[in-house]
Amino acid sequence: MNHNFTNDPIFPNDSNHEDVFPEVEASGDCDYFDGVLKYINQMLMEEDNLENKPCMFQDCSALQATEKSFHDLLGQKYPPPPSYQQYSSIPDQNAYNPNGNFTSSHCSTSCTVVNTFVEPNWISDQCAVEPAIDTQFASQIQPMGEEERVDHSFPINEFVNYGFEEQLQNMSSCKKNQYREVNDYAEEEPTKKQLAGYAEEIEQPEMFDKLLLCPASNPGLQDDHSTKNGARNNMEQNIGQSPGSKRGRSRKARGSDRRELVDLRGLLTQCSQAVASFDSRIANKLLKRIREHSSPYGDGTERVAHYISNALEARLAGTGTALYAALSTRRTSATEMLKAYRAYATACPFYRMSNTFANKSIGNVSSGVTRLHIVDFGILYGFQWPCIIQGLSNRPGGPPKLRITGIDFPQSGFRPAERVEETGHRLANYCKRFNIPFEYNAIAKKWETIQPDDIKIGRDEMLIVNCLYRLRNVPDETVMYNSPRDAVLNLIRRLNPAMFMHGVANGKYSGPFFGPRFREALFHFSALFDMFEANLPREDEDRLRFEREVFGREAMNVVACEVTERVERPETYKQWQVRNQRAGFRQLPLKQDIMEEVRTKKLRYHKDFVVGEDGNWMLQGWKGRIIYALSCWKPDQD
Question: Are 555 and 517 contacting, i.e. CB atoms less than 8 angstroms apart?
Answer without folding.
Answer: no
